[in-house]
Amino acid sequence: MEELNNPESEVFRETLNKQIEFMNNRFFKLRANRYLDDKMGCMGTKVDIVKHLNQGPAQNLIQTFFNYKTNECSFCMRKKGDKSIRQFERAHCNNYSRSDILTMAVDEIYIDDKTPIIVGDILRKFIEKHDCCPIYMLCNLCHNNYDK
Q1: Are 95 and 5 in contact (CB under 8 A)?
Q2: Concatenated DSSP letters for 64-86?
Q3: 105 — pLDDT class (breaks 50, 70, 90)
Q4: What global pTM score does this model have?
């Protein structure tokens, strides 16, 4: 499973290249998204902003934005029904946590703790920052092993 975290591995590079293409196409075609369209201002320290967005909006945005459909696991290539495979799940590359990527996004547009930042702008940057970290579609068995 180490190759899932290795930027030199074929599965890492191939998944990331497909993901970047997917993101570009998705942004181009996207008409509305409640998270990206959020005009509320968020202010405070960088840490507070990241904490506020990490568990709710950022997590939900990943689920709705990266709405991949697949017939096989990115790692073992097995299909649903093979050897106790029940489902495919999104697995974020372990090189960066969701919080790390959200921090990168906030860092890029943060001014100070008194200046509000538009939530949708933060979340758009958050998605754009996924150009360094693949999101794999793993079967439930591989996902469990990857998270160990």
Answers
A1: yes
A2: HH-----SB-TTT--BTTGGG--
A3: very high
A4: 0.88
